[in-house]
What we know:
Layout: E1 2-4, E2 11-13, H1 23-30, H2 51-59, E3 65-71, E4 89-91, E5 102-105, H3 106-111, E6 118-124, H4 125-131, H5 136-148
Antiparallel strand pairs: 1-2, 3-6, 4-5, 5-6
Amino acid sequence: CCVSSRSKDEKYKFDFTVCTLPLGVLKESISKPEQNSSSKNKVEFVPALPHPKIDAIENVGFGLLNKVYLQFSHAFWRVPSILEKDQTLFGNATGLNPHHYMFFDIGKSLRGNGGPPILMTLISGQEAAESEQMTDANLTRDVIATIRR
């Protein structure tokens, strides 16, 4: 295979390459020419990527994902009814604030049961955008309300 640049007349030949382009760049590279007004600045694969690769690029998504870390005075969730011996995560099945769908025991992940009492939850999509507009105090209240349920 060959890697070349449009800005320079250089070509490099390799037995194989590993492509680590961002997903947005890959999606742009497989778009049809009529959908892409700046085709001279996009990555071009010659020969074209195989259809399974194109299908994967077209169907994988990306978006906003925020992490919220909370540290407590003690790890009240490290009890068998919530978190089994070797587990470090538990889900939210309450129906309240479903955007806090998973909680990770960060302290236990790092140092076992003696680790610091720190929980992390993920917020994605529209709720992530909305959480960025909340104060830390309101976001904390929202997460704690979920845990208390």
